[in-house]
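Revision sheet: structure tokens.
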Amino acid sequence: MCALAGLALAIINLSSATVFVSHPHTAPSGVGSAVAALVGAHYLLLTAGVCLAVTVPALRRGKRAAWWAAVAGAVASLTAEHVRSGQWPRLLAPAGVLLLLLACRAAFVTRSDPVLLRRGLAVLCIGEAAVFAYAVLGLWRMDPDFTRTMTIGPAVRAALGLLFLLPVGVEPITRHGQWFVESVRTGALSVAVLGLCWLVAGVVGRPGHLRDRRRVRELLSRYATTGVAHFHLLDDKSWMITADGRAFVGYKVVGATAVALGEPIGHPGSIRAAADEFARLCALNGWDPVFYQVTEQGRADLVAAGWKTLRIGEEAIIDLAAFDLARPECKAVRSAVRRCERAGYRVVELAHPVHGARLAELREVSDVWLAAGNHRERTFTLGRFDPAYLRTTPIVAVLDARSRVQAFVNLLPSYQSCDATFDLMRRRPDAVNGVIDQLFVALIERFSADGYTGLNLGLAPLTGAGQSRSDRIIRLLYAHAGAVFNFSGLRAFKDKWHPRWEPRYLAYRFDTRLLGSAAAVARAGELPDPRSPLGRLTALLRRFPVTVAFFLLQAWIMTATAAGPVLHAQLIRHFGLAWPDLVHGQFWRLVSAPLIQTGPGWVWSNIMLIIAFVPAAEWRLGSRRALITFFCGDLAATVSVLLTLRLTAAAGSTAAAQAILARDAGSSAGCWALAAALAWSLPGQARTVAVTAVLVVLGAETVAHQRLFDFQHLAAAVFTVLAYAAAARWGARWRG
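Predicted:
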């Protein structure tokens, strides 16, 4: 019902956005305000319609994030209709949808990841397409309002120019035509900003992600017993935490399949609930659920919950108490260890956390290993070489006589398991043969001394099959796929350590979807090649999503205003901020004003600030904190300066009275807020020196020039330092 109501309101909004006022040539007093209100109302209808249309599928599946987006769209529709017409019958549709959504709030309980990347792309594509259609239809119908005839061909070309904020070959000759051109540009820019925000949010993480991550860590530390448990914390996982908070399922969506890693983890009394809630989550989202690498105990729990299982391999675990290097069957391993020791090799644990030259050496080893054996990085059930990841785990390495790393592994937390485990295993191709054997023997000795009973060597896929039809398929796959994936070689390497073999299973719901689920499992571990252009772009987006989005948006706006300086005045009028805008409740300008520069074209002083501080802040502070610091710092500086001007004007200052009417814009205050945050993030005495330097430089600029924007820069820096100091003090008290 809510999805249908949302779709209906979306259609009404998109249709209303193309309906023009009946008397375009008449304008009341205060033309600027009337035009701004008219443009804002049509823009609100347009963007609200796009927002509602995009969220309809998610509304149908009961997603809470979609419910919030639909409520925002209904409120925007209600506001736009009131501003545009002021006639109460037009308010019935958005008001009815809003009341329906509020009444049905309890039905939207799905806590799945809202797939913000896809939503961002959908908003960009669908939104810009809607704006384009709106522009073409309007230009075609408003032929008398422009300097030349608008057939469909010229209308399409002009609409493309308006879509990208570029100059067009037609000029409006009426106020009606003028506000229409501005409304198209406003809609195009706003949809672009909204889409980029969703894309950034998709890379940075959904709301509540950090809170859920802390809960997952707690559950892992109390209940995890499998060798793949730590991989639930990799950045490719989403989590479904049960309603009672006592269990979770870590999963990754691949196409139309949700692949869960292992069985649910948590309190034994909540495992069944976790499996059931995960199944309901997948049903709401239209996903096929599957659990991959399920243990024998997990299999029993899932079978009791109505799941089917298929044996997909065996996990090798060395019995540390029974392992004896002197036994005859370990002769080859003894020879390998002696050969490495004669070459001057020794096994050491590197200083933790690893950094600097040693980290660069580990990367060199990893790179040559990947290149020489035609290996590739994977994910989901394995980690990848990432400095941030490696700094969180101990690293054991084999050094040669010159203390050069020849091989290494990183050790993972075992949580509640008695079996130790590791992740990356890398070696130089030209290292002495047997270097991995030497490393494993050292690990066995170390873990035995630490009280572990086993060493987990990981999964040997497609082995240990039984006699059922599905098991016969597994044996057939093993025989024919082994030539490609070397399953037999992997099994042989692990078998020489004489481990015990524990079965692992795939749990699924429907036989008819088993083949698709198996394909999704195979794709879950794939990563784009980091050496390819796509891989490099993906890595850059993951590391600096805010920086990339900010630069793209700024480059677009600056290029457009350089090509058409008149456009800059229009952007300032509709997105800049002055005191009367705050008085009239146009608070959205607090967010839009920092995105529009003070002059048309490429403002190089601001470009240098952006280059200097935005990527550095995102690297140092994190994406979310850098974004919040930028906008909050600019907001605090702008509002404080406007408030000061207002008080000064009330005291009789003519200059202040004129200044508060001028619209402010520009990203410099936000950039200086980031500079102050960077200075605060430094340790010890360096923090004091850096913060003092930033404040002294900005204070000197303010005293020397006494320009309004110098006051804003200083205010932004001071506010940021005070905010970070207060947060640090509050955090210390809370921890105490």
